[in-house]
């Protein structure tokens, strides 16, 4: 299959096939079909209420699709058994909009948790790995701090350290820059790119932030809340400049003020 721009053939890491998402009789999105290729920084975008976070929840297996399939490296996640799904999830790293850190645990304890649950490293090895992961996100020496004792940007980075604890194949982000000032947001974007390259991961992120979309995204899908289907797929710069859908071009050329209004 050709890539989103019609160029050379790329290998799909995630395949969304004929997906329909619905709550009861209310259809959120229908007929979604696209690929996330190995090494992509893939953005799910669209106006408020279009189903961006709902799509992410489907990809994580938190919600089952009404129709369609989701495949990882050619294997159906939708039809997999519980043990297969758990094995696939262990190859993912996930950060949530709020960070999702356990407030009663230190940063080291938060990052330690997946290592204790899913690996056979001994205590000394885990301490070393945790220190290394925190150093990768610029938090060396903060092992014994609690989430409430650090800034919002630092909490985002700590959540990222936990997400990469198991060297995941895929990193999922739900509005990673939400609540951050522009400088912290840019630094987080740079960190995401650096970590993607260092661990060789594919990145999937929900965001409405234009700087993030244009600075780091390599591929994207646009979900429309009027037609309730995808009306844009490809590199965001190409969509901004050449999409035949006016709403996509408007979304990608809007002002900062409008961008804030479009946030979930």
Mind explaining what this structure looks like?
With 264 residues, the chain is an alpha/beta fold. It folds into two domains: 1-91 and 169-188 and 200-264, 3-Layer(aba) Sandwich (Rossmann fold); 100-167, no CATH class. The chain has ten helices and ten strands. It has helices at residues 52-59, 82-89, 107-118, 123-136, 152-163, 182-199, 210-216, 236-242, 246-252, 256-261; strands at 12-23, 26-37, 41-46, 67-72, 75-76, 92-95, 170-174, 202-206, 219-224, 229-233. It is globular. It starts with 11 loop residues before the first strand and ends with a helix. Mean pLDDT is 90; it is low at 1-8 and 256-264.
Counting DSSP E segments of at least 2 residues, the number of strands comes to 10
| Unreliable stretches | 1-8, 256-264
Major beta sheet summary? 6 strands, mixed
Pairing-aware structural class of the strands and helices? alpha/beta
Using the CA coordinates, give the radius of gyration.
Answer: 18 Å
């Amino acid at each position: 299959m050709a890539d989103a721009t019609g160029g050379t053939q790329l290998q799909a890491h995630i395949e969304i096939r004929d997906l329909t998402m619905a709550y009861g009789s209310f259809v959120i999105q229908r007929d979604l079909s696209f690929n996330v290729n190995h090494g992509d920084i893939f953005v799910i975008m669209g106006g408020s209420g279009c189903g961006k976070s709902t799509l992410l929840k489907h990809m994580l297996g938190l919600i089952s699709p009404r129709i369609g399939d989701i495949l990882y490296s050619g294997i159906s996640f939708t039809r997999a058994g519980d043990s297969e799904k758990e094995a696939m999830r262990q190859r993912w790293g996930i950060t949530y909009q709020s960070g999702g850190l356990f407030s009663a645990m230190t940063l080291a304890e938060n990052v330690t948790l997946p290592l204790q649950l899913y690996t056979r490293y001994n205590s000394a090895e885990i301490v070393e790995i945790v220190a290394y992961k925190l150093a990768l996100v610029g938090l060396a020496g903060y092992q014994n701090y609690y989430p409430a004792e650090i800034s919002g940007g630092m909490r985002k980075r700590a959540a990222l350290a936990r997400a990469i604890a198991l060297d995941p194949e895929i990193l999922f982000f739900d509005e990673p820059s939400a609540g951050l000032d522009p400088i912290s947001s840019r630094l987080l974007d740079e960190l995401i790119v650096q970590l993607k390259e260092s661990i060789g991961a594919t990145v999937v992120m929900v965001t409405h932030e234009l700087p993030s979309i244009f600075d780091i995204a390599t591929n994207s899908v646009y979900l429309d809340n009027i037609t309730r289907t995808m009306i844009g797929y490809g590199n965001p710069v190409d969509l901004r400049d050449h999409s035949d859908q006016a709403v996509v071009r408007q979304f990608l050329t809007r002002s900062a003020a409008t961008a804030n209004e479009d946030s979930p």
